Amino acid sequence: MRFEVWAPAAGRVAVTAAGAPHPMAAVEGRPGWWFADVPSAGHGTDYGFLLDGAEKALPDPRSRWQPHGVHGLSRVYDHDRFAWTDHRWHGRPLPGSVLYELHVGTFTPEGTFDAATEHLNHLAALGVDAVELLPVASFPGRHGWGYDGVHLWAPHEPYGGPDGLKRFVDAAHAHGIAVVLDVVYNHLGPDGNRLASYGPYFTAAHTTPWGEAVNFDQEGSDEVRAFAVQNALMWLRDFHLDGLRLDAVHAISDQSAVHVLEEMTREVDALSAHLGRELFLIAESDLNDPRLVTSREAGGYGLDAQWNDDFHHALHAALTGERQGYYCDFGSMETLEKALTKVFVHDGTMSSYRGRHHGRPVDLRTTPAHRFVGFLQNHDQVGNRASGDRVGASLPPDLLKIGAALLLLAPYTPMIFMGEEWGASTPWCYFTDHRDPDLARAVSEGRRREFARHGWADDVPDPQAVETFRRSVLDWSEPAARPHREMLEWHRALITLRRARPELNDPSAPAVETGDRWLTMRRGGVHLAANLGERPVRLDVPGGRLLLASNPAIDLQPDVNGDSRTVTLALPGTCVAVLG
Question: Where does 454-507 have alpha helices with state H?
């Protein structure tokens, strides 16, 4: 087989494979590229590259298989050996879909792709359309969030490696569920990252919270851009994934005339047309800039959707009363109304938390609401809390039901965080498994200092402690027990209603009215009324057929004219959906 590597920083390169080193030659017409043919190598052969006569071989920057961890040799992987059964799968469109964010390592006690496959029936019964996996690119140690990956082309071996991921995707498609993968192109982890030994993958021209930025616009950046774009295509093509979630794109520094995100969307669109399969890209960004999801023809980047943190902050603060940190700009019913009707709360307005104006308006007449992903929980908003506590830890079930109703009946693409559907009692903490003692100590101490600066007086779970990881694993006995069973049934009913009523997938803005801790939202003929306060409220709702009620004691009373209904929403927080 032929081995190739881009190593412009090296004067000579050899590949060690099949038990011997083999000198590599420069590839004609491709500056910085080296190649060598090793006929005895094939699927399962361990190999690495020797740069400038070094004695220790380095892993392949584009390794598809890292069975020995991030520091070990790479292994040849032949994608064609896997027997796919999803030949009739043509994907799922993002509009109208319900997403489900899942971390492979804590979704089950086993923490593997195969173990996660055993719960696909649960997700299908819930009504999930697409599973969004947290990063699975090979990272240091056995367990972690995955955002410190260093081998971006190789699925994490403790999860099951490349074959394990393929089995999960194949099984998900058999259940009618698409699979989206979270990928990180704004930085790489520090432990095991040897890309700089090969070439200018990073640049000091831009800085990030993780150090030098990935080189997307300086000398040598053409190959670095190709590395990222081709990596995205590899996941979609070779692993049959249906979409990618691009982590923290605001941290990608690229001053090129054609931004790397625009280049990526163009290539993914071309791949989708070639495969005859729905493919989509979702960005995470804190810029509140709709240009990310504006078409390329209209001067945008052409991404299919972006996460909407403002929706989360407005809903979370309204339900919990929290006002610390970035929640200081949220919490009022007026703010929640704006988040439901205007997408961004900060759309060019003053942000007290940032001390400046922030964001750009979204016109829902031209930009459909499904291009924005809404959520009440996600890995960041739970795991970045000091103790990893979920929103349900401090809220009564009725308020959680209101949060679920607003999430699943709002015009945005909803996303549920694993276990949220049954009100999981397990926390989801920040955890790592760094083997470098200095890095491990720095992470543990840095976590404590971070929350001490914010006035946190209680203990902060040590990210490096195995118990911190174990506490974050879902308890699968909960969905069958009260009160979790009732919460799960509520989520199923909401998703069923969302699927049954076409107006609940209308991408235009809803009509929302708010008062003293109460809210009504109208989407076509469906009217949602919710009481977030501590006192009963009486609200008029048009029509008369009760679709859903968070409390079975709720009923509708006709008014004197008989053409509307009055609903009394009692304590401690109740909501109804009514068909007008």
Answer: 466-471, 484-500
The CA angle 336-342-346, to the nearest 5 degrees, is 75
The verdict on whether 4 is a catalytic residue reads: no
Closest CA to 382 of 429, 339, 340, 421: 429
The reported pLDDT for the residue numbered 18 is 84
The answer to whether the beta carbons of residues 185 and 195 sit under 8 Å apart is no
3 state DSSP class of 17: strand
540 is catalytic: no
CB atoms within 10 A of CB 255: 10
* Rounded average pLDDT over 512-530: 94
Residues 6+ apart with CB under 8 A from 508: 364, 365, 368, 369, 411
Q: Cα-Cα-Cα-Cα dihedral of 495, 497, 500, 501, to 10°?
A: -120
| Tokens, residue 80 | 């064609």
Q: How far apart are CA 130 and CA 169, in angstroms?
A: 11
Task: Give the pLDDT of residue 563.
Answer: 56
End-to-end alpha carbon distance in the chain = 66
Smallest CA-to-CA distance from 362 within 350, 374, 348 is with 348
Considering the candidates 157, 217, 263, 284, report the single residue annotated as catalytic: 284
Dump pLDDT digits (tens) for 469-517. Answer: 999 999 999 999 999 999 999 999 999 999 999 999 999 999 999 999 9
**Does 91 have pLDDT greater than 60?**
yes
List C-alpha distances in Å: 248 to 147, 184, 307. 11, 8, 10
What whole-number distance in Å separates Cα of residue 526 and Cα of residue 61?
52
At 577, which helix (H) or strand (E)?
strand 574-579
CA dihedral 182, 123, 241, 161 (to 10 degrees): 70
Q: What's the farthest any 2 CA atoms get from each other in the chain?
A: 91
d(CA 567, CA 576): 9
Select which of 46, 217, 247, 398 is catalytic: 247
Q: Which two tokens stand for residue 285?
A: 């960004």
Round to whole Å and give the CA distance between 423 and 487: 6
Q: What single string gives the DSSP state of each residue in 331-383? A: -SHHHHHHHHHHS-S-SSEEETTTTEEE-----TTTS-GGGEEEES--HHHHH
d(CA 279, CA 492): 26
CB neighbour list of residue 303: distance below 8 Å, 6 or more residues apart = 246, 261, 265, 281, 282, 283, 292, 293
Helices (H), 73-160: 104-107, 113-117, 120-126
User: What's the mean pLDDT when you consider all of the chain?
Assistant: 94
**pTM across the whole model:** 0.96
What the block records as the tokens of 11 is: 């004067």
pLDDT at 575 over 90: no
Residue-level pLDDT at 558:
65
What does the DSSP 8-state code read for residue 412?
S
- Residue 47 and residue 15 in contact, taking contact as beta carbons nearer than 8 Å: yes
Please give the pLDDT value at position 541.
Answer: 77
Mean pLDDT of 164-173: 98
- Peptide bond preceding 67: is omega within 30 degrees of 0, i.e. cis? no
CB atoms within 10 A of CB 286: 17
